[in-house]
């Protein structure tokens, strides 16, 4: 039996108990953890009208099966802002059902509404499952990220 299409909608401030297991699953997938204060601050930022940080959820049969965080920022290269899709996570049982694609397309729609110049995101080289989807919905930039932690 085919899986119903996910319903994509903004994460509400009263849905933290739905969001946090996915957030922790995302962190676990990337073999990292954050202090509770950082998770608290992330949730606050998603709901602060003064922030340009947003969250959407993919709901199937009343259950949150995926989440995405995105933000807008300026660029020296364009007049319009860029949209950075920072975090995307779909629970393992819902992978391959269209939740990830629906979340990406919802962010693209938000970027179009905001008249952003582009949507971009990063993933690890060995995240083959995600990259199989990403290769279908976007072009690789060819850039390699370098980072210096402070």
Architecture blueprint of SSEs:
Blueprint: E1 7-10, H1 16-29, H2 36-46, E2 53-60, E3 63-73, E4 82-90, H3 99-113, E5 118-120, H4 128-137
Parallel strand pairs: 4-5
Antiparallel strand pairs: 1-2, 2-3, 3-4
Going across the biggest sheet, name each strand in turn. Answer: 1-2-3-4-5
List segments where confidence is low: pLDDT < 50 over at least 5 consecutive residues.
none
Q: Count all strands and give the number.
A: 5
At the first level of CATH, what is the class?
Answer: Alpha Beta
What would you note in describing this structure?
This protein has 150 residues and is of the alpha+beta class. The protein has one domain (7-137): Aminopeptidase. 33% of the residues lie in helices and 23% in strands. The chain has 4 helices and 5 strands, in the order E-H-H-E-E-E-H-E-H. The protein has helices spanning 16-29, 36-46, 99-113, 128-137, and strands at residues 7-10, 53-60, 63-73, 82-90, 118-120. The chain has a 5-stranded mixed beta sheet with strand order 1-2-3-4-5, with helices on both faces. A hairpin with an 8-residue loop joins strand 3 (63-73) and strand 4. The longest helix has 15 residues, at 99-113. The model has no long low-confidence stretch (mean pLDDT 94).
Question: Top keywords for this entry?
Answer:
150 residues, Aminopeptidase, five-stranded mixed β-sheet, 4 helices
């Amino acid at each position: 039996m085919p899986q119903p299409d996910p319903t994509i909608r903004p994460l509400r401030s009263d849905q933290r108990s739905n969001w946090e297991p996915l957030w922790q699953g995302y962190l676990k997938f990337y073999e990292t953890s954050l202090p509770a204060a950082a998770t608290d601050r992330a949730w606050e930022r998603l709901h602060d009208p003064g922030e340009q940080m947003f969250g959407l959820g993919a709901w199937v049969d009343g259950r949150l099966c995926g989440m995405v965080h995105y933000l807008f920022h300026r660029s020296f290269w364009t007049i319009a802002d860029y949209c950075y899709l920072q975090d995307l996570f779909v629970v393992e049982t819902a992978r391959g059902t269209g939740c990830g694609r629906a979340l990406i397309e919802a962010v693209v729609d938000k970027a179009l509404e905001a008249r952003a110049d582009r949507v971009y995101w990063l993933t690890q080289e060995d995240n083959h499952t995600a990259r199989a989807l990403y290769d279908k919905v976007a072009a690789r930039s060819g850039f390699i990220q370098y980072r210096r932690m402070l």
